Amino acid sequence: MTLFCVGLSHHTANVETRERFAGHAETQCILRNAGCAEALLLTTCNRVEVYGASEKRVSTDEIARCLAREIENDAHEYAPAFYRYEGEKCVQHLFRVASGLDSMVVGESEILGQAKKAYEAARSSNTAGSYLHRLFQRAFRVAKQVRTHTDITRGLVSVGSVAVDLAQRIFGQLSDCKVLVLGAGETSERTARALASRGVKDLRVSNRSSDRAQKLARLVGGQAIPFEQWPEHSREIDILITSTSSETPLLTPENLAPMLRDRIDRPLFIIDIAVPRDVDPRVNEMEGVYLYDIDSLQSVAEQSLALRRQQVAAAEAIIAEHVADFGDSISRGLNRVARAAEHPPVADGSLRASEL
Is the pTM of this model over 0.85? Predict the structure, then answer.
């Protein structure tokens, strides 16, 4: 059985390509049917990755087809953008991902929560077994140790905080800005917290679930807006930051044009940190609109990396130690499996996951 990872990230593909291969509800089951004994899908605004265990090699092209949001006959054309790690390299990659070392914002902590949710989803759907269980449990331990024993999280440590930093560069003081946050998930919460900490007084939150919008609004001292009313509020605001899980764009040139007619000489800044994107990229061609997507934030994030670069070496040393130990533990587990097969228990010949 071989552990492997195949994926796309901000290092190898732009947001347009990442959203084409962002997976869907049935991806993990399709991966099992394609030959993966175990499979786990990790999707964030900056990466789409499959972690798997298989006896026979499942090709990168096949995994790309499993990830495609629509049927892709030419999935192999995107192969150069996909990376693949097997065995020890896969283990090392996941440990770096969970620790925030592979993120656009190095040291960000959102990825650990996203990895935990992906793991729980795979366990619940029975697509992750003993190999991925051990791999991800160790990854969570490594991430905790890196955060405890290094200062990797100093400075801008989330996509949301980078988005707010960009807004502050554009407007200067944000205290007089009217801001609408569309979405109420984890990324939106971090963004709203960052906005409140920068002095935003007029902060509006809208989400399909009104309860979640109200909860987030209370948390940051903002105002909850019914989801069907957010287009009307877009006539008044200065900044729209959007991060929803919509499958199709919420903002297009067609539905934005009527809003702009009421905004004479008032530019609208939009920061779209959703993948798939919430805003049609054609919006950026409209007069008076300035659109930034997740890829646009990368240069801002790279500038903050200097604050934490010296901590990366310490984090890499912790990861290297765990990679070596994890390889040894897998070998010991396989040896126990082999001995158990030669001398099966009399009462029960099954092997518990805890014995691996």
Answer: no
Strand, helix or coil for residue 48: strand
Q: What is the reported pLDDT for 245?
A: 87
> Cα–Cα distance between 322 and 159 in angstroms, integer?
27
d(CA 327, CA 316): 17
Residue 248, strand partner residues: none
- Domains of the chain in start order, with CATH, are 2-154+311-342 (3.30.460.30), 159-304 (3.40.50.720)
DSSP secondary structure letters along 296-313: GGHHHHHHHHTTTHHHHH
Task: Give me the residues paired with residue 39 across strands.
Answer: 52
Residues of the chain with pLDDT under 50: 346-356
Start-to-end CA span in the chain (Å): 13
DSSP string, 269-284: EEEE--SS-SB-GGGG
Q: What angle do CA 195, 302, 199 make, to 5 degrees?
A: 15
**Structure-token match 């790279």, residue found:** 302
Burial track 182-214 (b if 16+ CB lie within 10 A, e otherwise): bbbeebbbbbbbbbbebebebbbbbbeeeebbb
Residue 157 confidence (pLDDT): 60
DSSP codes joined into one string, 216-265: HHHHHT-EEE-GGGHHHHTTT-SEEEE----SS-SB-HHHHHHHHTT-TT
pLDDT at res. 353: 37
Closest by CA position to 196, among listed 172, 218, 212:
218
- Predicted pLDDT of residue 50: 96
- Catalytic residue numbers? 45
Quick: pLDDT tens for 180-202.
999 998 889 988 998 999 999 99
Q: Give Cα 97 to chain centroid, integer Å.
A: 10
**What does the pLDDT read at residue 173?**
87
